[in-house]
Amino acid sequence: MPERPAAIPLTVLTGFLGAGKTTLLNRLLRDPALADAAVLVNEAGEIAVDHLLVEHVADGVVALAGGCLCCSLRGDLIATLEDLLRARDNGRIPPFARLVLETSGLADPGPIFQTLILHPYLAMRYRLASLVAVADATNAPKTVEDHPDARRQIAMADMVAISKTDLAAPEDLARTRALIAKLAPLASIVDATEIDAAQLVAEAPIRARDLTAAPTGHGAISTVSLASEAALTRASYDLFVELLRSAHGPKLLRLKGLVKIAEEPDRPLVLQGVRHIFAEPRFLDAWPDGDARTRLVAIGENLAPDLLAGLYAAFAGQAAPDRPDRDALFDNPLAPRGRGLLG
Ligand SMILES: Nc1nc2c(ncn2[C@@H]2O[C@H](COP(=O)(O)OP(=O)(O)OP(=O)(O)O)[C@@H](O)[C@H]2O)c(=O)[nH]1
């Protein structure tokens, strides 16, 4: 009888929108301990940008976009996990020894675990090593209060990595730690900047988990995406971001992507926003996948479907008859002036 192949350890990396999952992964993927890992990145938007932001390992990263793994993409998760096995078994891809699955920030890990455990073939070939959750020290308590999925991500984790400790006031950090200890009393709690690759993929002790899906779904949270050939000038980019932030900030949970800048068309600008905090814009050296289009994803509460497309077109000078142009958007007493990026 042919020998049954050893099950491949699978680490699920979760955490709410913008918590710092990709940042953690980027740092750890440089470690030789993860040289033999395949990485699967799921994101809620129809246009995938996360895998473009995972550095260094572009060839080993597979994107699963277009929905959330815990709901609409469960079938796709199964198909992708099976495809990876087939490609590995046929020698089409290197024989990865472990798999890291980064979930979308909205994912409830319960149904993902269920999918893996209940599938007869996948359960034989993959072994759930652990669930690692990233929690943002600056706003985890509010996020957990507002979003049941964020609560479940932490509650089910074997290890919780606290990110953004550099940004958090000591009392916020203490509050976040206390909350995690209460939600996940069996989990180890570490600083995300201190965790190493071996810790990320270590096998956690087996324990009972509640794998049923939370009844709430993702509530009023929606995702809107944009892909555009048009470029923004550097100045228009600042205005575009400022308007998004000032007019839609409270509803925006996450904004991210790559932007084509007219003055630098050969390299994209990385846009990263989590709630009201926006990272300093930075250029990558080149378009990671050769596709030199702006691609953006916004995730938030009750976002208008054309939010990104309408604003982007206006700032890129593509105003349509039924759409305001850039000057009209700012010729508005409510528009922000004299501060922030508007100078
Ligand atoms: N100052 C600081 N910024 C951080 C830290 N971790 C992440 N960030 C920033 O937070 C933003 C979001 O980080 P990501 O790693 O993309 O978060 P994510 O959880 O992968 O986001 P989604 O996949 O969109 O849910 C980026 O601008 C990061 O640079 C940290 O420890 N300190």
From TrEMBL:
UniProt keyword Protease present: no
Pfam families, per the entry: cobW, CobW_C
Keywords, comma-separated and alphabetical: Chaperone, Hydrolase, Nucleotide-binding
Family annotation (CDD domains): CobW-like
Reactions catalysed: GTP + H2O = GDP + phosphate + H(+)
GO MF annotations in UniProt: hydrolase activity; nucleotide binding
Cellular component, GO, one term: cytoplasm
Classification via InterPro entries: CobW-likC_sf, CobW-like_C, CobW/HypB/UreG_nucleotide-bd, P-loop_NTPase, Zinc-reg_GTPase_activator
Record-linked SMART domains: CobW_C
Domain spans labelled CobW C-terminal: 221-316
UniProt region (Disordered), positions on chain: 321-343
Top-level taxon in the UniProt lineage: Bacteria
Family to which this protein belongs: Belongs to the SIMIBI class G3E GTPase family. ZNG1 subfamily.
Function, as annotated: Zinc chaperone that directly transfers zinc cofactor to target proteins, thereby activating them. Zinc is transferred from the CXCC motif in the GTPase domain to the zinc binding site in target proteins in a process requiring GTP hydrolysis.
Stated name of the protein: GTP-binding protein
Organism: Hansschlegelia zhihuaiae
Lineage of the species this protein comes from: Bacteria, Pseudomonadati, Pseudomonadota, Alphaproteobacteria, Hyphomicrobiales
